[in-house]
Specification:
Elements lengths: L1 E5 L10 E5 L5 E6 L2 E6 L3 E3 L7 E3 L47
Antiparallel strand pairs: 1-2, 3-4, 5-6
Length: 103
C-alpha cells in the first residue's frame, strides 16, 4: 500500500490531494472451508458480523488548526478483478478474547 500527498496549484485554495495505491502483489487470497480469506498487507479484516471480511485501513489527514474538512471527493478509480468467477468471501467474525498459549 502506498500513500502520497500533493497540492495541485490548479485546485481551489485550501484543498489537499491524497494518492492511495494498493499493490496487487500485497494481496493474498486463501480458500478455506468457510470461504475465501482476503488479506492485504497493512490492512486488517473488517466488516459487519456475518458479512464479508474484507481488508480495511484508515487514512489520517492532518489539516491546519481551526479548519475542518467539508467533503471528500474521489477523482479517479481503477479496479482490477482478482478472481475469474464470483466467490464466497469468509464472513467477519465477532471479536473474542484470545486464549493464552493458542494463536
Amino acid at each position: 500500500m502506498k500513500v502520497h500527498s500533493h497540492h495541485d496549484r490548479a485546485c481551489d485554495q485550501g484543498s489537499v490531494g491524497l494518492g492511495f495505491h494498493l499493490n496487487p502483489s500485497d494481496l493474498t487470497l486463501r480458500q478455506t472451508p468457510f470461504g475465501l480469506v482476503v488479506s492485504l498487507d497493512g490492512c486488517l479484516p473488517a466488516g459487519a458480523i456475518g458479512g464479508p471480511a474484507l481488508p480495511s485501513t484508515t487514512l489520517r489527514v492532518a489539516v491546519p488548526a481551526g479548519t475542518w474538512p467539508l467533503d471528500v471527493e474521489i477523482q479517479a478509480e481503477h479496479w482490477i478483478p482478482v478472481t475469474e468467477e464470483p466467490v464466497f468471501v469468509a464472513p467477519a467474525q465477532p471479536l473474542r478474547p484470545a486464549v493464552e498459549g493458542r494463536g
